[in-house]
Write a structure and sequence with these properties.
Blueprint lengths: L2 E6 L7 H14 L4 E5 L7 H4 L10 H5 L5 H4 L1 E4 L2 E4 L13 H8 L5 E5 L6 H9 L2 E6 L3 H16 L4 E9 L1 H5 L6 H8 L2 E7 L18 H13 L9
The structure holds adenosine-5'-triphosphate (ATP) and magnesium ion (MG).
The site of magnesium ion has 5 residues, from helix 1.
Length: 239
């Protein structure tokens, strides 16, 4: 059975999709077969980030509503990284439990990463009900920290067993100048155990998040460390 991990935050634009793509590469580099599921109905982005947008024909909604097979909908982005796109618009027939049923049928994967949308609505619930573990992505600013602390409680309420905190866009210079919420305070306020810190990476924009251009970057190394921790290795925090 695959490890099923949702990435969420409550607040929008904090890097959930970017982190999902980076983590997929890190998990694939460890030899895992990874399925990314874009859960952002109407505002999907992983097809663009992974550079397969022009080939996107079917979505996971087409699979659960019987319009195509899983094999037809899954897009091969690169070796060991596959993607299921989100539907472009809401569908009445979808319930917030459908993704949970779908992931049970994706047996060939070692890791399934579910990229949740902003907010705590339908897409968030769908992702949480499907996942055993949730990585809450927070930037170190008070507005995001508050949204992540609310999202953490909701995730637990929706049955996620293991809720972890992943701090994104950390800038050591800004932190030293007192411009960010201190990491200890982010951890205290969200009440979630820290799994990793992704640095601010000026070269990171959407097309670069597919990994090809950023092999030497600290953010790629941070993703590799989080992937190792997900696999149960004891890797020290570095930032
Ligand atoms: N560590 C980082 N360093 C620099 N830029 C980053 C980093 N992480 C994400 N970004 C940038 O932040 C922006 C938002 O990222 P992304 O779309 O992944 O966020 P999101 O949380 O998925 O957004 P949404 O809530 O709309 O789904 C993008 O321009 C992305 O390149
Ligand atoms: Mg996103």
């Amino acid at each position: 059975m695959a490890q099923i991990i949702a990435l969420a935050s409550g607040k929008g634009g904090v890097g959930k999709s970017t982190v999902s793509a980076l983590l997929a590469q890190a998990m694939a580099a460890r030899g895992h077969k990874v399925l990314l599921i874009d859960c952002d109905i109407g505002l999907r982005s992983l097809d663009l980030i992974l550079g397969v947008d022009e080939h996107a024909l079917f979505t996971w909604a087409d699979v659960v509503l019987g319009r195509c097979s899983l094999q037809q909908a899954v897009m091969v982005c690169r070796e060991n990284i596959h993607l299921l796109c989100a539907p472009l618009q809401p569908e009445r027939a979808l319930t917030d439990g459908v993704l949970r049923q779908l992931v049970q049928t994706c047996r060939v994967y070692d890791v399934i990463l579910i990229d949740a949308p902003a907010g705590l609505g339908f897409g968030f619930r769908m992702a949480m009900k499907a996942a055993a573990r949730c990585l809450l992505v927070s930037t170190p600013d008070p507005v995001c920290v508050r949204s992540v602390s609310v999202a953490a409680r909701q995730a637990l309420r929706l049955g996620v067993k293991d809720v972890r905190l992943l701090i994104n866009r950390f800038d050591a210079g800004a932190a030293a100048r007192g411009g960010l919420v201190a990491l200890d305070d982010v951890i205290d306020q969200t009440e979630a155990q820290l799994i990793g810190v992704f640095p601010q990476e000026p070269r990171l924009f959407y097309r670069n998040a597919n990994g090809a251009a950023l092999r030497d970057s600290p953010v790629v190394r941070a993703a590799a460390r989080v992937a190792a921790r997900i696999d149960g290795e004891n890797v020290p925090l570095e930032f």
